Amino acid sequence: MSNDSKSIKVFAPATVANVVCGFDVLGFAVNTPGDEVIARFTDKKNVTLKAIHGDEGVLPLDPEKNTVSAVVINYLKRIGEENRGVEIELFKKMPVGSGMGSSAASTVAGLFAINTLYENRLDYKDLLLLAMEGERLACGQGHADNVSPAMLGGFVLIRSHHPLDVIKLSVPKQLVCSLIHPHIEVQTREARKIIRKQIPLKDAVVQWGNIAGFISGLYREDYDLIGRSMQDIIIEPVRSILIPDFYSLKQKALDSGAIGFGISGSGPAVFALSRDEQTAKKITKVIQQHFQSQDIDSDSYVSLINEEGPKVI
Amino acid sequence: MSNDSKSIKVFAPATVANVVCGFDVLGFAVNTPGDEVIARFTDKKNVTLKAIHGDEGVLPLDPEKNTVSAVVINYLKRIGEENRGVEIELFKKMPVGSGMGSSAASTVAGLFAINTLYENRLDYKDLLLLAMEGERLACGQGHADNVSPAMLGGFVLIRSHHPLDVIKLSVPKQLVCSLIHPHIEVQTREARKIIRKQIPLKDAVVQWGNIAGFISGLYREDYDLIGRSMQDIIIEPVRSILIPDFYSLKQKALDSGAIGFGISGSGPAVFALSRDEQTAKKITKVIQQHFQSQDIDSDSYVSLINEEGPKVI
Q1: Tens of pLDDT along A215-250?
Q2: Which chain A residue's Cα is nearest to B164?
Q3: CA trace torsion B50, B56, B62, B63 (10° rounding)
Q4: How many contacts, defined by CB atoms under 8 Å, are there between A and B?
Q5: Tens digits of per-residue pLDDT, A30-71?
Q6: Does residue A135 have an active-site annotation?
Q7: Domain A176-304 falls in which CATH fold?
Q8: Looking at the complex, does the CB of residue A194 fall below 8 Å from at least one CB of chain B?
Q9: Measured CA angle at A286 (ends A280, A291), to 5 deg
Q10: Which of the following CATH numbers is that of domain A7-168+308-312: 3.30.230.10, 3.40.50.300, 3.20.20.80, 1.10.730.10?
């Protein structure tokens, strides 16, 4: 084929899943951080992982086990090109196991890259199903709440997992996201285990009132409503135990002008939404200072909502 | 006072609460049926209930016990006019205990009437709180999911009950509602009792995906999405036991072109949403025929979504 020498570099965004009131059904993408993947055709007959940069050696280099190469292998099988040679190079630009959709960003970047090399042979729904397989490999569960916003950009609702039904929602123009990643470890698998399997119906009613309010707030660009809806009486009280001083952090973020604050995915990263960059920067500073006062280092990112998803760079 | 001889007649709409995927948080109003209330000042010093028409004698005539007069008494207390004479006359234009918000329509009509006589002294939030007290009297629980859409019109989300936070949602222009009321008895209090108090988290996640999808569908005017979201795996499987052949009725409604079908409130009325009046009429016919085949008489109503709430007539 004529495109054997093609090489492509793709960026895919970090994502905030759950967004406080939308456990397992809601997520959004940010402009920064994000991962980058280079993919190129080779004259070999398999997928190779040339290198991983920036992961401090924690990710597997076996192409069958690393999610990026694994989803590319599955992509090739899916389109009947399993003997095609592809070389992958992954640039981790965000911490692994942070709760910011690290594996999803890598996976989506890899799939977007290979699909672009194949001139968009698969549509986004097929890519999402492949990306969810990658999540299963990385996290033990094939959830869609990081890969969907990483793939589509913006706020994404996963209305249904079986069958997969993802809805790209409206993005209020002023929203800015603060992401703060404390250097403590929370395993997604572990974080899921501590959640109760049975919940009171009356709590569920409160929760679906809030997710409904949040969605409505997005469409109306009603920032107060978005903020009032960012409450979670089911998951947050349990998961927040893993994040030192969580409720003090939350209060400080709200006092600094956040419209809402919560755990990003299953943590340990936390996030805030606010209405302008200055406020968002103030929030990250206050939260980082609080972590520092407990001898916890952290990284922070301030970003608009990413609306376009992955892109060739 | 100069307005002692004033008399006013008000219409308030029937409502469909829950709307399949929004148990206790969602409802909408229809143009027909609805209740009517006449209110006039008298030179007495209390609230009197002159007559109730169309209730077949089932509603209490004691002004303290009938919800309409009871909420008017509370209204007068609220504004410090407890010694004012008011005469109420209620025209029930819909069946009692039907699941179509019968008590809410009467209550809202009464409150809107007295508030109009007092030149809108209270705002809609105060009126809603008074209306919820009326619901407590009628149903044993002070729910807002019928009184809110009856008061505001359109689709209404009750994001939170404590504190009360109601959001008027977008109304897709083509939506038509079919309401069919079979002549069987389901008591709201009883219907609530059979619902489990603990539910699986994974079912709750499915439910909040659906309510989020439904809200998104309203704003996008995406009728397919509205229809796909009208699923309830928590309440409907339990309550539907009280409605003979419920799942056959649902299948027939969908086969006749309904985008969604479910129990109105706690039943026994059922409702369908569709995209035009002809389809809505076809659905009511098919459902009524099925009830008839089981020797169950029924009433039916076809109506656009009521967008204005109560009005002086």
Answers
A1: 999 999 999 999 999 999 999 998 898 899 999 999
A2: A209
A3: -50
A4: 129
A5: 999 999 999 999 999 999 999 999 988 888 888 888 999 999
A6: yes
A7: Alpha-Beta Plaits (3.30.70)
A8: no
A9: 125
A10: 3.30.230.10
